[in-house]
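Q: Hi! First time asking for a complex rather than a single chain. Here are the components, and I think there are two in total. Is that enough to go on?
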Amino acid sequence: MKEAERKKLARDLEGIVGEKFVRADDVIRWTYAIEDFAGTFFHPLSDKYGPPDLVVKPHSAEEVSKIVKLANRHKVPLIARGGGGDMTGAATPLKKTGGVILDMTDMNRVLDFQEGLNAVRVQPGIRWGELHHELAKKGVTSGVRGPHGFLGASLGGGIGGNCFSINSPKYGWLNENILNLQVVLPNGDIIETGSLANTRVKDWYYRYCNGPDLVGIFLGSAGAFGVITEFTMRTYPIPEFSDTLAYTFPDTDSELKFVFKLEWHGYVTDLWGIAYYTLPDSIKKIIAPLVGERDIAIFATEAYDRDIFKAQKKAIDKMAKEFGGIALPVAGLTRALGISIKNETEWMGGGTFGKVMGPNGSDTCSIAHLPQWQKVVGKALEIMQKNEDALSGSVPLIGAEHFFLFAQILGRGGISNTFAMTPANFMDPEKVKQAQDMYNEIVESYMDTGYAALYRIGKESQFLMKRFKPEYIAFMKAIKKTLDPNNIMNPGVLGLGLEEGE
Amino acid sequence: MRLEECKQEAWLCNHCSMCTQTVSDEAGFYRICQVYEQLRFEDSSARGHNTIAFYLLNGTLKYSGEVADCIYNCTTCAACEEICKPFGNLVAQMGGTALKTVVPPIMNAFGASLDPVLSVGILEAMRADCVDLGLQPEAIKKIAASAEENHNPYGEPHADRVRWAEGLDISQTADTVLFVGCNAAYRKQEIALSSAKILKGAGIDYAVLPGEWCCGSPLLRAGNVDAAEKMIRHNVDLLKEKNVRRLVTACAEGYMAISRDWPKVAGDLPFKVLHISELVAQLIKAGKIKLKRRIDSKVTYHDPCHLGRVMGVYDEPRDILKAIPGVELVEMYPTQHAAWCCGAGGGLKDTNPELAMAIGTEKIPLIKETGASVLASSCPFCKTHFMNVLGKARETIEVKDITELVAESMGV
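A: Yes, that's all I need. Here is the structure of the assembled complex.
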């Protein structure tokens, strides 16, 4: 964008949100040219990202609406951004298009909570930790607790990016908990979905009651079809009883069968699984003397009633033994040490994972159906072992010099995740390039061996697009063209808004 | 470019946004970066600073007035580093500060690390580059010039450094030295006085050195590395020459600089370094300090960032307050490792006083919520700033340094 044009746009934006909330200097532009480090630098489009022309902070749907109308007049892309923790460019402009970033983090209020509705109405810029804090004051929980390690991430970003979450095995993904939306459409119109489409309804948030489910089209769309300015999500009672349990298993197959059954019965709140054979030597050296060369499943379980909780743990124990499981006394040990854990799923990743994982240890997360996990991991391991020299960085938390793979159950229906760490020495550009190539090869393999779309929603869409059926792509493009004829809403996400071959 | 030395560290930032704005009930955090809370754009958080460092290092951005404006808007309170500690939330809720000291060495033994990204170090390296390029704010230039000329940042004559001690007949030679620091020597002299009275009252043979210079911390935090090193070398030489065995200071800033920064410049120090709260807590336990007089007040304690988060001194000031007859200690929320900065740190009070005041003002409701009539702290900078902030807001809450309360209770 030319300087004169930027200045003019800045003045117009200042007229909408006020001078304090519009920035166009180089410092701010480059600060917003980056999102999650690993994602930004490892995926194939990373060299195609660039800084926004301006950053603006709206405070209401009305302001967003005016900004969208202005962007249409100027034909300038708009990229809504929350905490900026996306890993696929959904919160960063393309270099060739630039655009205006809407920093939504000042739209962060809890708007409505009514006992009996089992739902809370919030603005999308609210961050996970803040939401938990506000809901705890009301004596309830959102169930899902946000992406692992990112309490500073915003809910709006999670909706746009189809965020799985801590506690998803029990409560589903974030978007499974969304009931209702207020959206600013690409033409600037403000709509409300579900029961709120009825002019007589003020505070009842039901999703499926006015014909087709128009909520769904905006979930996971990374801002391609509009800017979400309010939403309602489910709330749940806070479970009174919870424990962290752990079992070891003789092999990965037994562990996976146990995990699958555990989730199927609804006993698990969140879970991490470790497949011994995938671990780096440094970790094997710690684990083997303690529990033998066995796989480990560590997970949280919870209930609202003491008797049910006791019975549930007994059932879990029986289930584990069925697959050769041996209990590790995690809960007993922590209690014996006088350690009280306020939140049994906190260790699953409520704190930061930032330096644990990267950027020298980029993680290629995937979603796979649990029974396919070994197939997915096998392929990833094969790719990594082909060029171990490329993995020249380290994973700080575990002191590992090389990769490791981790299994994690993500949601209902045996959805699993796989972390394949590709730690590169960032001081050595050649090694970085090799690690990037490996990362991409692993992602490609995920796509072919399992089905992995988890972190591929933003501008990494080429992984998806070449596998989508043509009729599906045509349908998506038709929706985009109808809603957003000027192609201003986050061009590039989901492969939409790009010319052929881009 | 001094930032080159932090390249590896800068690469380690995952830009996860925890340091920008996080609330964690489990770990007691309620929002992190008070500068971000005021300025509301990502470039005013550690994440933003680390991004700027990244683009400076790869040549995309060049140092400029805009860059300097941005990176001098930071109090160096290190809340960003606290929230960045991997699994820090879990460790905090499992065992608080005790576990925090135990777990990292165990992890280190396995070659693993729970260290955070050292965002403040990256920021200070960028500030040092700004100084080298002459881009630092005028206030910072003035501080450096004054340190050079007067050995304090205030433009006060060096000869007046020990004026507060006139008539006290304090020795200039002893195993223990009270390192007064510039703020207590020139601004908050009541802290210097009460510190001296406490030491005397406890029967400690101590000295105050008229040749003491600035500890270097205000210079280091602002990027004036060369000037700081000059101060540090002078002080270390002086203390060595005097055969000092123990250095005590009532300044949180000075305590951090002496303990952490001096050895980087002058090597291992041949004397022990204590914050006065650590010494007083020991002396109370040993029965060498008798707290006789009642102070019937509800007192809340503000953790100075550099004493608490950076140096890990949380318990001693609280132990002291609890030992004073009549004092009811009430905690703010958030507190200790998650405490909000007063707003004066990192040179912000000099470079952007309005912002510093706004940050301090945000803390007033937290203080008032406790119902305390006294706000205690153990840093002269925090005291100064809270007196300004509360005064401007016409609040009647008294601000006291912990040394003043101890001296009062001792009746010295």
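A: Chain B is about 50% helix and 10% strand. Let me know if you'd like any chain examined more closely.
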